[in-house]
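Q: I have 165 residues here and want to know how they pack in 3D. Can you give me a structure?
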Amino acid sequence: MYNGNTNLAYDLSLFEVDEELERKKEKKREEKQNIKITEKKAVARNGNAFAMVAAAVVCIAVAFAILYSKVQLSDYTAMISEVKTELEVEQRENSRLNAELDSMVTLDNVENIAMSQLGLQKTQNSQINFVTLNIEKMTEVAETDTNIFVSIKDWFYDVLEYLGF
């Protein structure tokens, strides 16, 4: 805080500005700025040219990569369509062969092959023999042991079987 009742004297000469000295300093500052600006422009021009060439190279590389991917895509699409047509042809051939196989397995064809290639003949009525079997119902009943020891033994075996022995 400023107190106006002091006996201090101020040396105002310290605050005076030498105009000539100030102009020289200002001139030096302007020259330094001009030098820095021209250096920056030169560097910026060289760097800018390099950046432009690099950007152009990158753009060309990306364009070729996209073009190459489109070419590959069209090649693969053509290959897929070729394989699809080949698959359709093979499926039609498979259907034709299955129909031919079905026609070959008819009873008439089997009979002709049996007669011509294997030498088989149809049976005649004189070749048929009938066999008669005993049709009676027969039942045999096993004898049972009523001995107490046999029943204990059977019980013991049943328990062992239940336990898994």
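Q: Anything worth noting?
A: The first helix runs from residue 19 to 104. The mean pLDDT is 81.
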